């Protein structure tokens, strides 16, 4: 339930380089905050000026085309991580509009947290024919029984109406 290790390592290195570039341009080079905080702040800057930085990516030969595509597919949102199946983790966007089969970048999602049934903020990218988290995770909170039930019902409805996507190829254009 993880991305190919070589692909994951390339994504991590190039995504980190990209976000640190944004941090240097938008916020400054100071190392006064931790790496994850800088990456998260840069990711927020990217989201607010997406076209500007997509144009930057397009003009930079140092980024692999599959990594560029993954970065451009970034969907940062609040997600309910419901549970694991044999092949992936079930994620539902907090507003209930979409569900995705997500695999870990370097380790299974459940191993990251030690449990299932969480509400968290993260980015999901399309990489190697799968959905995977971008590795920057904020504010994980354990879902109570009521929320588990609510998001479980939302997931069932998404499956019934075609709103659950196992692979990026199943997403409507």
Beta-strand fraction estimate: 25-35%
Radius of gyration: 16 Å
Mean pLDDT: 93
Order of helices and strands: HHHHEEEHEEHE
How many domains is the backbone divided into? 2
Q: Cα distance, first to last residue? A: 26 Å
Structural class: alpha/beta
Unreliable runs: none
Strand order of the largest sheet: 1-2-3-5-4
The count of helical stretches stands at 6
Per the principal axes of the C-alpha atoms, what is the gross shape? globular
Biggest sheet descriptor = 5 strands, mixed, barrel
User: How much helical structure, as a percent, in the residues?
Assistant: 40-55%
Number of strands: 6
Topology of helices and strands:
Layout: H1 5-26, H2 35-48, H3 50-59, H4 65-72, E1 75-84, E2 89-93, E3 99-103, H5 109-113, E4 118-127, E5 130-142, H6 145-161, E6 164-165
Parallel strand pairs: 3-5, 3-6
Antiparallel strand pairs: 1-2, 1-4, 2-3, 4-5
Helix pairs in contact: 1-2, 2-3
Structural summary, described in words:
There is one protein chain. The protein has helices at residues 5-26, 35-48, 50-59, 65-72, 109-113, 145-161, and strands at residues 75-84, 89-93, 99-103, 118-127, 130-142, 164-165. Helix 1 (5-26) crosses helix 2 and helix 2 packs across helix 3. It has a 5-stranded mixed beta barrel. The mean pLDDT is 93. It has 173 residues and is of the alpha/beta class. The protein folds into 2 domains: 5-72, no CATH class; 75-170.
Main attributes?
6 strands; alpha/beta; 2 domains; five-stranded mixed barrel; 173 residues; 6 helices
């Amino acid at each position: 339930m993880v991305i190919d290790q070589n692909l994951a390592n390339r994504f991590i290195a190039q995504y980190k380089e990209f976000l640190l570039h944004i941090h240097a341009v938008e916020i400054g080079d100071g190392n006064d905050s931790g790496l994850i905080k800088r990456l998260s702040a840069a990711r927020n800057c990217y989201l607010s000026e997406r076209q500007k930085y997509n144009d930057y990516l397009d003009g930079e030969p140092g980024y692999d085309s599959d990594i560029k595509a993954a970065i451009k597919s970034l969907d940062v949102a609040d997600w309910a991580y419901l549970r694991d199946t044999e092949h992936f983790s079930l994620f539902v966007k907090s507003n209930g509009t979409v569900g995705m089969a997500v695999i870990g970048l370097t380790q299974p999602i459940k191993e990251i947290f030690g449990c299932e049934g969480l509400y968290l903020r993260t980015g999901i990218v399309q990489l190697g024919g799968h959905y995977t988290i971008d590795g920057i995770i904020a504010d994980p909170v354990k879902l109570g029984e009521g929320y588990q039930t609510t998001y479980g019902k939302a997931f069932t409805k998404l499956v019934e109406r075609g709103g659950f996507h196992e692979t990026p190829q199943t997403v409507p254009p």
